[in-house]
Design brief:
SAM-dependent_MTases_sf; 215 residues; Rossmann fold; Methyltransferase domain-containing protein; seven-stranded mixed β-sheet; binds S-adenosylmethionine; alpha/beta; Methyltranfer_dom; globular
């Protein structure tokens, strides 16, 4: 079976080009999937939520892909962005782009399987867009444990009956995605460590989990 790393190594260029509207050869299926996923809108919504908190902070972006979110927040003057991804291909492309744009001093891209890591890099705020969708509940529980009391924001696809979820699941099967999970709100609430805050918030029609309150 394909690993998450191999899946994303192959997939990330087309996924990212389709999701962020870059010119590239994109299959019909990916175009349709992109229409439903609203990835670019999700990035903008996340930026709206956390931009007031970013200045002089170290931001940790988990499952950063080609770095669209990491690059998108630089204008809010973080101290640094650390962006991790399991895919060496994604990290290579993100680094090249950062170098080309001469912004590599502000954003550090690293290959890392966040599921296997024992400790996250030091940071002030943890974020992940389209990331926890690839974590089982025990893996998500472990991630919450590593985050501790830090502010966090994750986009989230909720497990419930909907046309979107039906089509999304068909898409994932057709792509041989090695592991993608949707959890219910109560499943997520049940694995949050004692004392950790968690709210479900909707911004521009997109669902996030966070311990931040919207400003
Ligand atoms: C749906 S893409 C989202 C990319 C980016 N966050 C965005 O919104 O444009 C999911 C990303 O998570 C990464 N990923 C999946 N599992 C991971 C893991 N265990 N550790 C680190 N990255 C992972 C994939 O390589 C992929 O780049």
């Amino acid at each position: 079976m394909t690993s998450q790393k191999d899946y994303w190594d192959k997939k990330i260029t087309e996924w990212s080009s389709a999701s962020y509207g870059r010119k590239s050869s994109i299959s019909f299926l990916e175009k349709v999937a992109t229409y439903f996923r609203s990835v670019d809108k999700r990035k903008d919504a996340a930026i709206k939520i956390i931009s007031p908190l970013i200045k002089n902070k170290v931001i940790l972006d988990l499952g950063c892909g080609l770095g669209e979110f990491a690059f998108g927040i630089l204008r809010y003057k973080p101290k640094k962005v650390i962006a991790l991804d399991i895919s060496p291909n994604a990290v290579k492309q993100a680094r090249l782009f950062a170098k080309k744009k001469k912004i590599h001093g502000k954003v550090r891209f690293e290959v890392s399987d966040v599921v296997k890591t024992k400790k996250l890099p030091e940071s002030d705020i943890v974020i992940g867009l389209g990331f926890i969708d690839y974590l089982t509940l025990p893996q998500l529980k472990n991630l919450f444990r590593m985050i501790g009391k830090k502010p966090y924001l994750f986009s989230c696809f909720e497990k419930k009956f909907s046309l979107f979820n039906l089509l999304h699941n068909i898409y994932l099967i057709s792509q041989n995605c090695p592991g993608a999970y949707k959890h219910t709100r109560s499943e997520i609430r049940n694995i949050v460590p004692k004392g950790m805050k968690l709210s479900f918030i909707t911004k521009d029609g997109l669902l996030f989990i966070t311990n931040l309150h919207e400003s």
